[in-house]
């Protein structure tokens, strides 16, 4: 089982050259058991909302298509994790977010 973080999912869906060789190798090795936390949907929404990620007019649809295309299964989160993530500010003041590739 391999759980992708949000940037890995974005790069898998848009720009494989951003992934390291070891990441690509791990993805190939675990191709039938790729997972992503559902919190990645929230992170992608926040990135599109602040224009750090351009995923078209319907980013949720693009997210879902990326999961289907690459055979990625969503891993649920429990209520405690959801509650704590709702307490976070969308972008930490000291965090430098990079722009992800265009559509």
Provide the CATH top-level class: Alpha Beta
CATH superfamily: 5'-nuclease
Overall pLDDT, averaged? 85
Shape: globular
First-to-last CA distance: 28 Å
Number of spatially distinct domains: 1
What is the CATH fold-level name? Rossmann fold
- What fraction of residues sit in β-strands? 5-15%
Question: How are helices and strands ordered from N to C?
Answer: EHHEHHEH
Describe the model.
- With 103 residues, this protein is mainly α.
- The protein has one domain (2-86): 5'-nuclease (Rossmann fold, 3-Layer(aba) Sandwich).
- Helices cover 48% and strands 11% of the residues.
- It is built from 5 helices and 3 strands.
- It has a 3-stranded parallel sheet with strand order 1-2-3.
């Amino acid at each position: 089982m391999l759980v992708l973080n949000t940037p890995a999912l974005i790069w898998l869906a848009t720009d494989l050259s951003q992934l390291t060789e070891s990441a690509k190798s791990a993805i190939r090795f675990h191709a039938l058991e790729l997972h992503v936390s559902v919190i990645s949907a929230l992170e992608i929404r926040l990135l599109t909302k602040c224009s750090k990620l351009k995923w078209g007019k319907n980013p949720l649809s693009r997210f879902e298509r990326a999961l289907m295309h690459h055979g990625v299964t969503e891993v649920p989160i429990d209520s405690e994790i959801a509650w704590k993530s709702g307490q976070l500010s969308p972008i930490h003041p000291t965090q430098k977010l990079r722009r992800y590739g265009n559509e």
